[in-house]
Amino acid sequence: MKLAKSILITLFLVAISATSTLAYIEDSTMVMMRDSVHLATQIYLPDFRPPPYPVVLQRTPYNRRENDLTIVICDLFGYAFVSQNVRGMRDSEGDPMVFLTDGWGELKDGYDCIDWVIEQPWCNGKVGMMGASAPGMTQYMAAGAMHPNLTMICPILAGPSMFHHVAYQGGVFRKVLVENWLYGISTPWLIDTVANHYYYDTLWAQVDLTTLYDSVSVPTFHIAAWFDMYTDGQIEAFQRMNAVHGNNKLLIAPCGHGDAVGTLEQGDLVFPPNALVGEAELISIARNWYDYWLFDSPTGIMDEPAVQYYLTGDCNTEDTTLFNRWMFSDVWPSEGTEYVEYYLHKSGNLDTLPPATANADSFIYDPANPSPTIGGREFIGMDAIGYGPKDQAPLVESRSDVLIYSTPVLEEPMAVTGKIKLILYAESNRIDTDFAVRVTDVYPDGRSILMTDGILRARFRKGLDAEIFLTPGVPDTFEIDAWSIGHVFNTGHLIRIVISSSNYPRFSKNPNTGAPFVRDDPVTLVAENVVHMSSEMPSHLLLPISPVIPAQIAEFEALPENIAVHAYPNPFNSACRFTIENGQHAVERVEIYDVSGRIVERLDANGVAENLRLSGNSSAGGNQHREFVWNPDENLPSGVYLVRAKMADRTASARVMYLK
């Protein structure tokens, strides 16, 4: 994932380059793995404090050197940063293995790298990890290897299981993702390796963290996004790991992958300004997590609700009372969520009343003319099509090979928070086919905006590790996982599902022959697929419905007391404003230290200091805020300073960079 550099970070990098004084010490080495293969490794050590340091590790197939933002974060906040190219990528030796050597198999590159790090004199024995997308996946793999010195991880927009959450969904090859990514990292020959293992086997077990959730106790902050490629993998990882270990966090932002991060425009929707999760926000969130576990700082992050998510909704209104705002919960889905069955009816209705008579709908699926992908949880290879929440009405719903079912017009807002499932009682005249579903929010103007989708290959309806073919003409049961949303369908809207047997090229086409999977198989059959609706075969949509809570309750009532210091701008060159969140505690004094530990400024309870002054007080949600402005003495040198706020029984601190 690439995050656009903020003006603040760019100015900082320009400043340190102009003075030719790097704020870090850089080194490069080749680190040997257990099979004597050497991996290229870059090392960055803070230059403003002596070792040893806690270490933040990134393992990546991408450029390990050109990550200025990461260097600045680790240097400014006092961590050592180690960036390593995974096996066979860039300057690292060995053959590319697509994460197979990064976990807990015969080769354990992540484990071996941590072993090397903790042996270095500049490491204090604590190792955390960071990174988004592929570097996020190497974190999940390293967590599964269970090194005792891996102190915490923070995977961003990444999949915990290479099979279930990355290469295949519902047993169907994720064509556009796998092919474009492996071409993009110059390993196209690995596409067939992935395709040849089209059902779950021992190869995939080496890179499937889902089998180890009960054992992996490393504290984990899962940062996900509603329109990302790996959303449900991270949600499920949080649910299962936190239930056992109680030390996980989950954040779900309203964006997609790559260049969809840091923008309000998502697909065909434009969210209000409060939806923006940019660089500064991610830095602030991550810093509290890293400081808590690596510096033992009382940041208070473990006292906060475990889940923070953006509740999406109608983007045609500026009213964010019930949706398009941030929500907090200790669990996911949030308390009070209950599944409600919406039955499919011959009339095209979705209704809570089951069908009274036996009916069926059918459609023809021709692999030579598949239903096209329009939007969805993708990124690379989708430039011409577009990704995210896109309108399905013009090119998908107008086709004859789809079945459409909608609720009546909603008379009040309906919040759907959790995993959506479609239970189909269906049959085919072929021994294998696919069943795909799209879930949309239908606006009053007729736009049918995709919120999530899912697919299931019929031969894998009983499990992803064994092929059981259909008996033509005999109905069977299919449970299609449509992944999760946190969305309010507004008054005047409809909830709609679109059923087909393809969603191409997001997913590979099923040739309907039952043959072993081959990419772009030229041998195909046309299938007639039937969906049943009766009391004996009640096809239905399972919606996780939660209470719609007004903003003043959701945003404030459940929030814990926060204790923190925030600095802006940071770095700065003339004045810096500190906002101290002090809960209900009185701030006794504010002190500023240089890197040697010398106090350069102190403000007591009376608010008297030469260059540091109280500028205001405020409160929100029961938490008190005090604001201070620091204008450093002209004789004070450029460098890193520690701001510490002292209260009766706790302290909060922040590091700032002063550039003259």
Output the keywords:
alpha+beta, Rossmann fold, Jelly Rolls, Immunoglobulin-like, seven-stranded antiparallel β-sheet, six-stranded mixed β-sheet, 11 helices, about 35% strand
Uncertain stretches of 5 or more adjacent residues: 1-22, 552-561
Mean pLDDT: 88
Number of strands: 35
Task: Tell me the major beta sheet.
Answer: 7 strands, antiparallel
How do the helices and strands line up, and which of them pair or pack?
Blueprint: H1 7-18, E1 24-32, E2 38-46, E3 53-60, H2 68-77, E4 80-85, H3 109-118, E5 123-129, E6 131-132, H4 134-145, E7 150-152, E8 155-156, H5 163-167, E9 168-169, E10 172-173, H6 175-184, H7 190-196, H8 202-205, E11 220-225, H9 231-245, E12 248-253, E13 265-266, E14 269-270, H10 279-294, E15 307-311, E16 325-329, E17 338-344, E18 350-351, E19 359-365, E20 403-406, E21 414-428, E22 434-442, E23 448-457, E24 476-489, E25 494-500, E26 527-533, E27 540-546, H11 551-557, E28 563-568, E29 576-583, E30 587-593, E31 599-604, E32 612-620, E33 623-630, E34 639-647, E35 651-658
Parallel strand pairs: 3-4, 3-5, 5-7, 6-8, 11-12, 12-15
Antiparallel strand pairs: 1-2, 2-4, 9-10, 13-14, 15-16, 17-18, 17-27, 19-26, 20-25, 21-24, 21-26, 21-27, 22-23, 22-25, 28-29, 29-33, 30-31, 30-34, 32-33, 34-35
Describe the structure.
The protein is of the alpha+beta class. It has three domains: 1-152, Alpha/Beta hydrolase fold, catalytic domain (Rossmann fold), CATH 3.40.50; 338-551, Galactose-binding domain-like (Jelly Rolls, Sandwich); 561-658, Sandwich (Immunoglobulin-like), CATH 2.60.40.2300. The protein contains eleven helices and 35 strands. The strands form nine sheets. Strands 17, 18, 19, 21, 24, 26 and 27 form a seven-stranded antiparallel sheet that branches. The two termini are 33 Å apart. Residues 1-22 and 552-561 have low confidence and may be disordered.
